[in-house]
Amino acid sequence: MRVLRFLLFVFLAAFLGAGAGLGYLAYALTRDLPDLEALDRLRLTATSTLYARDGSLLAALASVEEGRAIHRSLVRLSEVSPAALAALVFSEDRRFFSHYGLDPVRLLGALWAILQGDLQGGSTITTQVIKNTLLKDLAQARTLERKFKEWALALELERRYTKAEILEMYLNVVPWGGNAVGLKGAAEAYFGKDPSALTLAEGLYLASIVPAPNARYADLKGVRARMRLLLDGMVAEGWVSPEVAEAAWQEPVAPKGWRVRYDGEGNLLEAELVDPEARILKAVDFRFAPHFVLEVRRFLEARFGKEKVYGEGGLKVYTTLDPVMQRAAEAAAKGARLPEGAELAIVGLDPETGEVLALVGGVRRAGDEYNRATRALRNPGSAVKPFVYAVALENGWTQATLVPDRPLEFPDPSQKDGVWRPKNFSGTFLNREITLRYALDLSLNLPAVYTAHSVGIEKVAERLARAGFYVRYPTLAIAIGGASITPLDLAAAYAAFVNGGYRVAPQFVSRVEDAKGRVLYQAAPERVRLFSPEVAYQGWDLLKGYVYDLGERGLAKGARIPGRVVGGKTGTTNEARDLWFAGVTRGLSAVVWVGRDDNRPMRMGGREPSSSVVNPPIWRAFVAEALRGRPGGDLPPPPGLVAVRVDLLSGLPSPSGVAVYFPRGREPLPPVVEPQEAP
């Protein structure tokens, strides 16, 4: 009996000693706990989402943690399907709603494991929130310090927050393998879905892999066995009915990257991991319009800084892209007939607001991030001439003003003999005076150079710079394409001919909101006055003339769209290094550029191609489809302009001539016929 009491005393002393030792250890390890208020201040990186102008999803910009792209979009409980939520809670912490942060059943098991030297076990949804936020630095460490700190903080977390709030935290912080963090990222990574669309079977799959997602992703057969156990447990505990469980089991779950085959009973007959990278979400995940999205990303970085975009993230970015127009641009680009080795850019923007509605920055290489629409600064060739003539119109000229098409010489120290002798593209000339309008219809160089010289090259250079052209030196060569411009800026400049005379600033983003819906940026049109409404409309009239005046001999006949009035101008630079067509119509200013990235001369079928052959059909294919069903009539002239039919060559009134707009009081008059003396 004495021995029994002694043994009992020894056991009790050992138990109390162990308890005291464990208590002291717990105290020592939990003295320096993180402040739980840090959860309120915690900045969770989150994926920024881009939307097209119709509200459809355009792209996602992943956040960055520790130099790595992370796909995490914050989700509310109300945005998660109840079936998937039930699967996750049952699998991870089925007594979550009845315990106070620590599950007594799991806790006893964890303590027993600790006494045996195993530091696993005891995890609840509440402790996982702590592990993945406040104790993130210790998340991979299997130590007593982490365990005791998790338990202490879990109790405090339960005291301060509701169960719903804690569960929502969990759904947003748990890593799900690859680069997906949180349920929304996981749903997209594994099934390409929003959490609201997840089925019970898909929720069970995600619940089954979350303890070791990278390893379990590669073991679909093992995951299916785990799903079966979970379903049986949910039925046994009354979470789902047998019928619901059986329907979930028979659903052919196919995570991204897997090729699978099931029988009618839900048995996995074949499973092959064909693309292990399929679940990895890219830093920039496009739905379409990759070059447009990259331009939006560049804007966001410049406007808000990389730390805001990638370090905090969660931005909702509403862009200007019109999906219908974008698809029309991409179809036109895909069907384009291009010179050997050539690239292409297409831009379409709203001439009133500058909103970029469609953009193609290249067609040759997949994954190519070089955006030719916004970065290719190239010479515009004859596409600059409408601006030269608009400056002349502003200085008192009319479309019927006569300009010479004959050899011209100008002093130029850069030339071999100190003289510059410009030539027409054809190398020939009419050797007479013709109207300004006819000179543009034929795209003659000599009249354009003469015009710039007569009105003053400084005036022309200043106006071109204001329109968005890069003018290095104000020389006469800029009148026939010596300045430089990007396709995007040329579209913004051409908008002036149909919006009353304003160059519009291109805009890719209309509004940016943070994760809480607060507006961080709201776009407003930016317009720079280039010409008066009267001059701008006469410029529009010139552009229409270029498309229609010469009938089947017209250089831009390929741009005509039945039922729609269009105007525009081609441009071809020396040796066909750049081919352009810039056109405008009601509701759209659009540009098509074709050229090589290395700026070498282009060839097409062994010959030097012309912009009048290559570009207008591409432009027409884009614009006709982009504006299908929208108004296509002519624009009304502003007050003060009158239409007179004139002969294109002489500029004199002619009933059979072309209708041309003139300022009232400056319209051409028929020649005065001197009365003859009677014999």
UniProtKB/TrEMBL annotation:
<keyword id="KW-0812">Transmembrane</keyword>
<keyword id="KW-0378">Hydrolase</keyword>
<keyword id="KW-0328">Glycosyltransferase</keyword>
<dbReference type="GO" id="GO:0008955">
    <property type="term" value="F:peptidoglycan glycosyltransferase activity"/>
</dbReference>
<keyword id="KW-0133">Cell shape</keyword>
<dbReference type="Pfam" id="PF00912">
    <property type="entry name" value="Transgly"/>
</dbReference>
<keyword id="KW-0121">Carboxypeptidase</keyword>
<feature type="domain" description="Penicillin-binding protein transpeptidase">
    <location>
        <begin position="345"/>
        <end position="585"/>
    </location>
</feature>
<keyword id="KW-0472">Membrane</keyword>
<dbReference type="InterPro" id="IPR023346">
    <property type="entry name" value="Lysozyme-like_dom_sf"/>
</dbReference>
<dbReference type="GO" id="GO:0071555">
    <property type="term" value="P:cell wall organization"/>
</dbReference>
<dbReference type="GO" id="GO:0030288">
    <property type="term" value="C:outer membrane-bounded periplasmic space"/>
</dbReference>
<dbReference type="GO" id="GO:0008658">
    <property type="term" value="F:penicillin binding"/>
</dbReference>
<dbReference type="Pfam" id="PF00905">
    <property type="entry name" value="Transpeptidase"/>
</dbReference>
<dbReference type="InterPro" id="IPR001264">
    <property type="entry name" value="Glyco_trans_51"/>
</dbReference>
<dbReference type="InterPro" id="IPR036950">
    <property type="entry name" value="PBP_transglycosylase"/>
</dbReference>
<keyword id="KW-0808">Transferase</keyword>
<dbReference type="InterPro" id="IPR001460">
    <property type="entry name" value="PCN-bd_Tpept"/>
</dbReference>
<keyword id="KW-0511">Multifunctional enzyme</keyword>
<protein>
    <recommendedName>
        <fullName>peptidoglycan glycosyltransferase</fullName>
        <ecNumber>2.4.99.28</ecNumber>
    </recommendedName>
</protein>
<dbReference type="GO" id="GO:0004180">
    <property type="term" value="F:carboxypeptidase activity"/>
</dbReference>
<keyword id="KW-0961">Cell wall biogenesis/degradation</keyword>
<dbReference type="GO" id="GO:0008360">
    <property type="term" value="P:regulation of cell shape"/>
</dbReference>
<dbReference type="InterPro" id="IPR012338">
    <property type="entry name" value="Beta-lactam/transpept-like"/>
</dbReference>
<keyword id="KW-0645">Protease</keyword>
<dbReference type="GO" id="GO:0016020">
    <property type="term" value="C:membrane"/>
</dbReference>
<dbReference type="GO" id="GO:0006508">
    <property type="term" value="P:proteolysis"/>
</dbReference>
<dbReference type="InterPro" id="IPR050396">
    <property type="entry name" value="Glycosyltr_51/Transpeptidase"/>
</dbReference>
<feature type="domain" description="Glycosyl transferase family 51">
    <location>
        <begin position="68"/>
        <end position="234"/>
    </location>
</feature>
<keyword id="KW-1133">Transmembrane helix</keyword>
<keyword id="KW-0573">Peptidoglycan synthesis</keyword>
<dbReference type="GO" id="GO:0009252">
    <property type="term" value="P:peptidoglycan biosynthetic process"/>
</dbReference>
